[in-house]
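Anyone able to model this chain together with EPU?
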Amino acid sequence: MEKIIIGGGKRLCGEVNISGAKNAAVAVIPAAILADDVCRIENVPNIMDVQIMVKIMKSLGVTVKNINKNTLEIDPRPINSYHVPAEMANLLRASYYFIGALLGKFGKAHVFMPGGCNLGVRPIDQHIKGFEALSVNVNIDNATIIASADRLLGGPVYFDMSTVGGTINVILAAVKARGLTVIENAAKEPHIVDLANFLNLMGADIRGAGTDIIKIHGVDSLKGCTYSIIPDQIEAGTYMVAAAATNGDVLVKNVTPKHLESISAKLIECGATVENYDDSVRVTGNGRPLKCNIKTMPHPGFPTDMQPQFAVLLSIAEGTGIVTESIFENRFRYTDQLIRMGAQIKVEGKTAVFEGISELKGAPIKADDLRAGSAMLIAGLAARGETEISEINHIDRGYEDVVTKFKALGANIKRSEFKDFKQVKNVG
Ligand code: EPU
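re: yes, here you go
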């Protein structure tokens, strides 16, 4: 098993290029199934979650070629299956987008329950409610979602909460359904707009993506196209926070500054300077961070996927900061790791209170999930001494070339093989 080793305390300085958005790519890739021709997708992040999505596509019979590191060519014409079995679906959350995409293609989908980060209970009742509103029959048999419709018919869908996955799944199913689908209380995240732009380029008729009412007029067919994925908001935010936490000076390139507004606003509250350019932002630290309070909200509110990274800033800030998590019920597991590094954090239900200390100390820690993992990287970079992060497979799921990128900013960071106790015993 690999781990990441960091010699902390170095200011990060220089430039970093942000990759394509993970959560857009994992929706756009299955959407390509709906085309009657080849789609070329550019700016695809080269990360584990994308590789798994490609593996699932191939298992369905779809031809997927890697044109280069960040470009995929997808030919859906040979598709011959609507089954996504447990061993594939279990590997990530986004496997559930195959329900919507296969329903749109065949009117049928058999997809095992999705995996993904352990952030507490993650029900899919809203997805099912959405499919049923499109005249789909949905049953769950032996943890497999069995969905089928004689003919998908557009209909009204009202979500009880803002759900990214539910909104994407209903768009995928509705795009070729007969008639009009209206999604009310739709999620507004940038990747929803990206998916709609991709499908519209293929010939779909989706209006209102990015607002809370999305209208979809079903079309008979979709054609192939060439499309470039938007920059990753959360990867960008992670490097922005790393710059502030190390009192550094980093130009974060290939971003959409509009998508980073809530992150920039909180960084400024924490005392950093943020300068916006056309497609880049520069973050400069101004000494020890200041405390702030954070409440996670659906877009355009502060993203839950940036909560653990900001927790590192609050751990070393002057004063007491409070984080309220309002999207997921169990997103503070990483605080145990920060406490191992000396942080003073009290978690009670949906709230965590951070009494800032002057510095974290390097320690052996682990990545509990993807964003927790990126927070551990920032903690290690900001801390005094050496930090070893294990279970870095979580980080590889969503961050392209993370060690190379941090190294280029001056970090003392490397990947290293390590022998766990069992291996050491075997060697001995
Ligand atoms: N929810 C329900 N029922 C549903 C769907 C959602 O109760 O049918 C609840 C969830 O339990 C949660 C809230 O609604 O409390 C919002 O969940 P949402 O559906 O928006 O989240 P998701 O689709 O499961 C995506 C991202 C997450 C990101 C969230 C919130 C992907 C593949 N995943 O998850 O990304 O945290 O939206 O923005 O797009 C990550 O990238 O690290 C990650 C976890």
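The first strand starts at residue 2 and ends at 7.
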